[in-house]
Write a structure and sequence with these properties.
four-stranded antiparallel sheet, alpha+beta, Immunoglobulin-like, 2 domains, 185 residues
């Protein structure tokens, strides 16, 4: 309503300046169009920033749940995690942890849920020290290769030695699985 009153007052002022009513209406229409454009420009950044925040939150949620190139396993859990490779998902499950010299011997299992045999996958363990262990937090890294074939629908045992930390000193463990050769039956 305010816009219409302002438009009417504007037409009266333009008519008082000697413009004919038709020219005054045309000028008033142009002014209203410009006001609309200014309003759109003024509020567009707010809408864009809201959309950007919503999109950023959605991307963060998708990244949090998945696909990752590594499996996170906990020393206190007996479940499994999924490491996504170029050839598909590989399950990783933690088995026994035992003291081995000044470090740990970690027994884990790789599960192949694909329909092809994965030939000689490689493992990289990236792990940290438990915050209460009194050790530098890390991260530390161990590489393990030449595992042989991981046939479909099986769990394959893998033993890895971690030289720096005893089992009670281990924190987070991430297992990166690399697989690039398959064999189909």
């Amino acid at each position: 309503m305010r816009g219409k009153i302002a438009g009417f007052v504007g037409c009266l002022l333009l008519a008082a300046c000697g413009l004919d009513p038709r020219e005054a209406r045309e000028l008033q229409a142009k002014v209203e169009a410009l006001e609309t454009e200014v309003a759109l420009i003024k509020y567009a950044p707010a809408a864009s920033s809201d959309e950007l925040v919503a999109l950023s939150e959605r991307v963060a949620a998708l990244e949090a749940r998945g696909p990752r190139g590594y499996a996170e396993i906990s020393t206190s859990s007996d479940g499994y995690s999924i490491a996504n490779t170029d050839l598909g998902p590989v399950l990783v499950r933690l088995g026994e942890l035992e003291v081995h010299g000044r470090g740990s011997k970690v027994q884990m299992f790789l599960g192949n849920i694909t329909s092809v045999s994965i030939q000689n996958p490689g493992l990289i363990l990236v792990y940290t020290a438990d915050p209460d262990a009194g050790r530098p937090p890390g991260p530390y890294t161990v590489t393990h290769t030449h595992l042989g074939a991981v046939v479909p629908a099986t769990w394959v045992p893998v033993t890895v030695v971690i030289p720096e930390l005893k089992p009670d000193q281990l924190g987070e463990i991430k297992v990166f699985v690399s697989a690039s050769i398959v064999q189909m039956r």
